[in-house]
Amino acid sequence: MSDEEGSVGLGFAAGFFGGCIGLILVHALAKGAETKKGANYGFGAQVILGVALRGIAAVMSS
């Protein structure tokens, strides 16, 4: 893998743990398409997990 491709795992970690700021930084600074794709997947996973946990909390409290 060349440096131009990037790293899906690194992008995923930045998107998942960095949230909006991580996603923005990856898209602004990363050159590899795979890193950007990983950041999108990571951010999407974070959003889905957050919605699911909020839904579970709402059901448990009612």
How is this fold's topology laid out?
Layout: H1 8-29, H2 33-61
Structure described in brief:
The protein has 62 residues and is mainly alpha-helical.
For the sheet with most strands, the description reads: none
Strand content: under 5%
N-end to C-end Cα span: 51 Å
Structural domains: how many = 1
Low-confidence blocks of residues: none
Helix content: over 70%
Question: What is the C-alpha radius of gyration, as a whole number of Å?
Answer: 14 Å
Total helical segments: 2
Helix and strand element order = HH
Helix/strand-derived category reads: mainly alpha
Number of strands: 0
Shape: elongated
Mean pLDDT: 94
Would you kindly provide a written description of the structure presented here, covering whatever features stand out?
This protein has 62 residues and is an all-alpha fold. It has one domain (8-61). It has two helices and no strands. The protein has helices spanning 8-29, 33-61. The termini are far apart. The model has no long low-confidence stretch (mean pLDDT 94).
